[in-house]
Design brief:
Number of helices of chain A: 16
Shape of chain A: globular
Strand content of chain B: 15-25%
Largest interface: A-B, 20 and 16 residues
Distance between the termini of chain A: 45 Å
Number of helices of chain B: 9
Number of domains of chain A: 1
Radius of gyration of chain B: 20 Å
Order of helices and strands of chain A: HEHEHHHEHEHHHHEHEHHEEHHEEH
Distance between the termini of chain B: 15 Å
Helix content of chain B: 25-40%
Oligomer: heterodimer
Largest sheet of chain B: 5 strands, mixed
Number of strands of chain A: 10
Helix content of chain A: 40-55%
Largest sheet of chain A: 4 strands, parallel
Structural class of chain B: alpha/beta
Strand content of chain A: 5-15%
């Protein structure tokens, strides 16, 4: 595979994340040494709830981009496929399965030393079913218990007022069951007051982060895509911690300063794009290809949908509301509204949405979303089939030929718009 | 004042020479694996056909997968933009183009001004491209040029389920072994790729007027199958392989006011320039 050069991080906050990720793995090993339970959880499982439980919550999916960036993902995919897991599965499922299968292999060199074995695992049906299936598979491979939160998909909730008490009860009952599961595993009573404190801290971090993100509306946009995908780490993976809130504060101040000084991630900024979805973690350098042509990514859709303030007085109920209102768990029109709202806000020229065929819940709506963005907002879209982690589904030459053609469309539109 | 457009594709190189907006000469040349050679070979042929020295060409532009390998190009554009420009110039009422080349297949949607609104291309698979038909022609023992004429003789078709080149080949072999008539198999192949292409270009989606370009557009059987699946009439330009080169030449023609760069850095071209001028 031919790739472009390494991705460029323009922000100090983004460069700081490398050290934070290393610390994450060191702290996990220290937790094991100190007898603190290590809990593997899948994306969008209720991490705040685990953070308050006195355990070390480890997002196993966080290892996926790390492994892909270090070109290790093919080894984990191979390990899983040799045991019969299909290549057609989501690679966010097969890489963690490969990690579990190879965790005791002394000849396997894991990135950052790799994760330590979990004491137990927690997952949720958020977005897709494969999350529960793969975490259950890891539970069997490592002989560890698994706690599961069920999520309701495609429900007809358009507005907060559409949420009924039985919706909330369904989630809250499960959170309470998960708390009992955690108590059984840790042998300690769960401290609800501590959950309130974690939620307070989480809210503080969110307020700083989202205020910082508002500066991305500046022209030129202060933050690059490669900055964004790094900067997400603390708040998405380690919410409700003081050091995360402090990081969000530094991010906010840097965004403010860059915006006020007119410092852009891409200069001159010819085109402003939205990045809808996740990147190809094994080739973040592809982002440079856009940027070299003057295209900056001003807006993003992933992760931030999670950054909604919770109620410290009623944390379980507010967590339930967050899941119920999330566009990804809803239907196509909610997702179209969500993406359209961001597109309008950030004054965009186009949208890049990589096509991850293995991620069915996102992929199934993609064509509808593209048509809606073209029809309603007159925004051209670029999409090609690839994968977040599996580079067998990626061709650098094909990707670049499509990007070139997309940029030519933007250039032609710009030329027409500038005509007297 | 001549403008040259070259489309260096995976299977063929194509060139169009314009004087103003008049086509002076055009050529199609099979690639030999070296795209720079193909470009230079096309240059030789086009200059000979037009009876002009190299120095008469005021602007040269290139497109296609090998566009960056043309040593004398002054501007590159993707096939999407060039194809759209060429077709819009030939037929301004066209809103959709299906271009089926050797290794890829594209759907392009145009607005009323002939600008590209959207496009879609096949991903990493030769199904639904010229290469698929080339392989099948070899298995069937029919020349590529005769596939179209063979298939329109059939009154019915043999169902081909797979458009994967490898699985499709096995399926064809199996049908031959069971004594299926070749013309019915060829018709089935055309229907299979038509379904595949229609599924892909449906994402843009297609609207009339529809034009089919690329080498496969010369295959009447494939065009008929596509028309049937798409439910609309398709137009095929007189020389469907050169339309992207034509668009490229048109873009070169409109850029002629730019000064020609110093081409002396290219040793190969330097020799050739002296020979041809």
């Amino acid at each position: 595979m031919t790739t472009t050069s390494r991705s460029q991080k323009s922000m100090i906050a983004a460069r700081e994340v490398y050290g934070l990720v290393k610390s994450y793995y060191q702290e996990m090993r220290q937790a094991r040494e100190q007898g603190v339970p290590v809990v593997w959880y899948s994306g969008q499982a209720p991490v705040e709830l685990l953070e308050a439980a006195g355990v070390f919550p480890y997002l196993i999916e966080q290892y996926c981009p790390v492994a892909a960036a270090k070109q290790l993902a093919p080894l984990y995919l191979d390990a899983a496929e040799r045991r019969g897991y299909s290549e057609e599965l989501c690679s966010y499922a097969t890489v963690p399965i490969g990690v579990a299968l190879e965790i005791d292999n002394p000849r396997f060199h894991h990135a950052n030393g790799g994760p330590v074995k979990p004491d137990f695992l927690v997952t949720s049906h958020f977005l897709c079913d494969q999350r529960v299936k793969y975490i259950k598979a890891i539970g069997r491979i490592l002989d560890r218990p698994v706690g599961v939160i069920d999520c309701v998909h495609n429900i007809d909730i358009e507005e907060p007022s559409d949420i009924k008490q039985y919706h909330l009860d369904y989630y809250v009952t499960q959170y309470q069951e998960l708390i009992r599961f955690v108590e059984q595993q840790t042998g300690r009573p769960y401290d609800m007051n501590r959950l309130g404190e974690v939620v307070e801290e989480f809210n503080h971090g969110i307020r700083l982060f989202m205020a910082g993100l508002e500066y991305q509306q500046s022209v030129p946009a202060p933050m690059s895509a490669s900055d964004f995908f790094a900067i997400m780490f603390p708040l998405f993976v380690r919410p409700g911690r003081r050091e995360t809130t402090e990081f969000c504060g530094r991010f906010h101040d840097e965004m403010k300063a860059r915006s006020e000084q007119g410092i852009g991630a891409v200069t001159p900024e010819k085109y402003r794009l939205m990045f809808d979805g996740l990147p190809m973690w094994f080739n973040l350098g592809l982002l440079n290809y856009f940027e070299e042509a003057g295209a900056s990514f001003a807006a993003f859709t992933m992760y931030i949908d999670r950054f909604i303030e919770l109620d410290p007085e009623r944390p379980l109920e507010s967590m339930a509301r967050r899941e119920l209102l999330n566009h990804i768990n809803s239907h196509a029109l909610r997702r179209i509204e969500y993406v359209g709202e961001i597109a309008r806000k950030f004054k965009l020229d186009g949208i890049f949405m990589p096509g991850f065929e293995s991620c069915k819940p996102i992929y199934v709506h993609q064509e509808e979303l593209k048509r809606a963005m073209r029809g309603r907002l007159d925004l051209p879209t670029l999409s090609f089939e690839t994968d977040f982690l599996d580079e067998r589904y990626y061709s650098d030459a094909l990707a670049k030929s499509r990007i070139d053609a997309f940029l030519e469309i933007l250039e032609e539109r710009r030329a027409v718009a500038c005509m007297p | 004042m001549y403008a040259l457009g070259l489309d260096i594709g995976s299977a063929y190189g194509k060139a169009v020479l314009l004087q103003g907006e008049q086509i002076v000469a055009s050529r199609v040349l099979r690639t030999d694996g070296n795209m720079e050679h193909t470009a230079l070979g096309l240059l030789d042929q086009i200059l000979a056909a037009a009876h002009i020295p190299f120095g008469e060409i005021t602007f040269a532009a290139s497109t296609g997968i090998g566009r960056h390998l043309v040593p004398f190009t002054q501007k590159t554009n993707t096939e999407i933009t060039c194809q759209a420009r060429g077709i819009a110039w030939m037929c301004p009422t066209v809103r959709s183009i299906i271009d089926i080349g050797g290794q890829d297949c594209k759907g392009i949607k145009l607005d009323e001004a002939g600008r590209t609104i959207d496009f879609v291309m096949n991903d990493k698979c030769a199904a639904g491209t010229g290469r698929f038909l080339e392989v099948m022609a070899t298995v069937l023992g029919i020349s590529l040029e005769n596939l179209g004429a063979t298939s329109i003789q059939a009154t019915q078709s043999v169902k081909i389920a797979s458009t994967c080149t490898v699985f499709g080949e096995s399926e064809v072999v199996s049908h031959l072994a069971h004594g299926a008539p070749k013309e019915q198999i060829v018709r089935g192949l055309h229907e299979a790729i038509a379904r595949r292409i229609a599924g892909m270009v449906g994402k843009t989606p297609c609207e009339p007027d529809l034009v089919i370009t690329g080498g496969v557009a010369k295959n009447v059987g494939a065009v008929r199958a596509l028309e049937q699946v798409m439910g609309m009439q398709a137009f095929v330009p007189p020389e469907p392989q050169i339309t992207a080169a034509l668009g490229c030449a048109l873009m070169a023609e409109r850029t002629q006011s730019h000064p020609r760069p110093d081409w002396s850095h290219s040793a190969t071209l330097d020799v050739r320039t002296r020979e041809l001028s």
